Amino acid sequence: MAGGSNTRLLDETDRLRAGDTKQGEYPIFKKSASGEDVAIINTDGNYKYVGRLIVDFDAQGRIIPESINPNVSGAYATDEQGVKDLNAENLVDPEIKAITDALQEVIKKQDGNVLGITDVFLNGTRSDVRTQETNLGNLTADANLNYVKGLDSTVAVSIKNGGGIRNNIGRIFTPPGATESQKLPPEGNDLSGKPDGGISQPDAQNALSFNNALSLVTLTATQLKAILEHGVAKVAPGATPGQFPQIGGISFSFDATQPAGERIQSAAILNDDGSVKEALVRNGEVVG
Asked: Are residues 133 and 276 in the same domain?
């Protein structure tokens, strides 16, 4: 059984949910290292389908491919039509249905609250946001800076712990038979009215699930350098320190081969267009 790719495998008798496309045959047959048949099965995620495989084995425990009946095995859509096909309409527990219907309405309302649109995958992967600049790190730090500037126009810098970013905004898709994954923008949701590329309230909540508060502080250039030094102090091969800074309104460079506390090589306050407004650190020394 494969997992993680959400690849929709179906046979010739299986029915797709509205809007879905078939991505491979159920099951996919491959050969093992010893030349024996291997049946690979997979369905879409989030319980959109239920997979069923009934197969016989020979006396040596090897799969008999001809024993798989497509009228029995395959992927079953879990929509209303799928329930009707199984004559299971009257098997629904009314109390459970009332709970799930109420939850679905809440989820639909939240997922229909679209905060913005992106045409790229927004990278919140742990190994990235805790070690380097990412587009989601930039977006969230810039959003924090923009919000606080509305309260105090003199605020110049935003620093966000990479460890506060908990998920991507987008989807990772591996086509059937492929070895490389594609990183894509968020998928739309017809039920909630969320368009393709839409960043919904749950997307933001999943990515920023700690809902970290903002603190407004006044710092000298020396103090700001010390905070940046703390942010990169634990950078090391294989490490993913949560204190790694995602930033807005400032740029900096560091040398991870230097001792902690002596790694920041340059830093500068930036204008809105990204140009340098004020240098803070040059060659590891505070100048601002």
From this structure: yes
Torsion angle defined by CA atoms of residues 114, 97, 44 and 116, in that order, rounded to the nearest 10 degrees:
0
pTM of the model: 0.75
Distance of CA 1 to the CA centre of its chain: 23
Say which residues have a Cβ less than 8 Å from residue 85's Cβ, sequence separation at least 6: 15, 76
- Please write the tens of the pLDDT for every residue from 61-105: 999 999 999 999 999 999 989 888 888 888 889 999 999 999 999
Q: CA separation (Å) from 85 to 77, 81, 92, 183? A: 10, 6, 14, 35
Residue 2 lies inside a defined structural domain of this protein: no
Q: Give me the CATH number covering residue 147.
A: 3.90.780.10
Q: How far apart are the first and last CA of the chain?
A: 59
Establish if 95 belongs to a structural domain. no
> What is the DSSP-derived secondary structure letter of residue 17?
P
Longest alpha-carbon distance in the chain: 79
Paired strand residues for 186: none
Q: Where are the alpha helices (DSSP H) in the chain?
A: 80-85, 94-111, 126-129, 135-149, 201-207, 221-232
β partners of residue 286? 281
Quickly count: other Cβ atoms within 10 Å of residue 132's Cβ: 13
